[in-house]
Fold:
Amino acid sequence: MKKYDIIIILFILLISFFSYLIYQNQVSNNPLRAEIYHYSELVETVPLDQGIDRIFSVKENENVIFHLFINGNICFEESDCPDKLCIKTGKISKPGQFAACLPNGLLLKIVSADYNNRDVDIIVGN
Structure:
């Protein structure tokens, strides 16, 4: 490697780091919400900034239990699916993170509260 190669690599890493910091700063200022989809249909919206601890399910499948934590994390608490991968996903709290229980057709994703895009992200068939 030449001297200029190292300088270029460091410059790219520096730009990437500062871009990440700016993005995180802008996203952290926006309130977040969790959206729960059942077979690609939005069935529940849960604000994550209320500071409450809540265990709940959706009427479309009451065998799947969600847990909203005081700090704004949310996760699948219980499910009747065979592999329990949705539970093993753990807590999610950042925009863009998601967890899915495909056997039950449920998708849990975190979005910014000012997110208004209603385009389909995923289609889960019966």
